[in-house]
């Protein structure tokens, strides 16, 4: 297994840093290849601007055609090209990050914004009466698996159906479905470590053990059963789920997961 870990935390001695180290040591000990993109150590540029596209930047700047033109011409900046090559090299992708303000840190979102360029991660495939491009279960990154390893400050009870923050599955849906599944990756259930601000040494040992167990079963874990866009479940071009396919009472994000 070839694994890319994209790690986003400014402190190497943090809980996230320790979980990243556990992943590297566990996977390498099992004979897998591992590469790490440590975004803070790389001083990753998180903001998309015209400099990303060189002579292919439109004026005024339109990010979508500019990124597509630069990608097609092989003219994206070297840092972006290197990350795209890592994604194509990997068969498994781990995003390691703390949940800040209900989402990923800005530097990791900036990695997505710049690396998932037009014609690389989206805007591929034909659009006709039966298909709406190659996305949501198809696309450039098809055949790869992805998993989130997320630390959360609050207790698990806060992130349930009746919890004040809402279900963790809903909070992670934009990343799972809209970032990872969109370009074709299979998305595994996340590894979530709650109460991260108050974890003790013994609790970390237990968490590290559970994380190791997850890491050693990445190849066999069943992915989240998201519906494929072009499988017949959605009307095209409206992309509305066809009536009657959902379980009784199911609504919201859960409509897009098969039973």
Instruction: Give the tally of β-strands.
Output: 6
Into which percentage range does the β-strand content fall? 5-15%
CATH superfamily annotation: Flavodoxin domain
Structural class, from helix and strand content? alpha/beta
Q: Which fold does the CATH topology refer to?
A: Rossmann fold
Mean pLDDT: 95
Helix fraction by DSSP (H/I, runs of at least 4)? 25-40%
Total individual domains: 1
pLDDT < 50 runs, ≥5 residues: none
Salient structural properties:
single chain; about 260 residues; alpha/beta; Rossmann fold; six-stranded parallel β-sheet; globular; NAD(P)H dehydrogenase (quinone) activity; Flavoprotein-like_sf
Walk me through the structure.
This protein has 259 residues and is of the alpha/beta class. The protein has one domain (2-223): 3-Layer(aba) Sandwich (Rossmann fold). It is built from seven helices and six strands, in the order βαβααβαβαββαα. Strands 1, 2, 3, 4, 5 and 6 form a six-stranded parallel β-sheet that branches.
Describe, in short, the structure shown:
With 259 residues, the protein is of the alpha/beta class.
Q: What layout of secondary structure does this protein have?
A:
Blueprint: E1 2-7, H1 15-29, E2 33-38, H2 63-72, H3 78-89, E3 92-98, H4 106-115, E4 145-151, H5 168-181, E5 186-187, E6 191-193, H6 201-215, H7 229-233
Parallel strand pairs: 1-2, 1-3, 3-4, 4-5, 4-6
Helix pairs in contact: 1-6
Pfam families: Flavodoxin_2
InterPro entries: Flavodoxin_fold (IPR003680), Flavoprotein-like_sf (IPR029039), NAD(P)H_dehydrogenase_qn (IPR051545)
Family: Belongs to the NAD(P)H dehydrogenase (quinone) family.
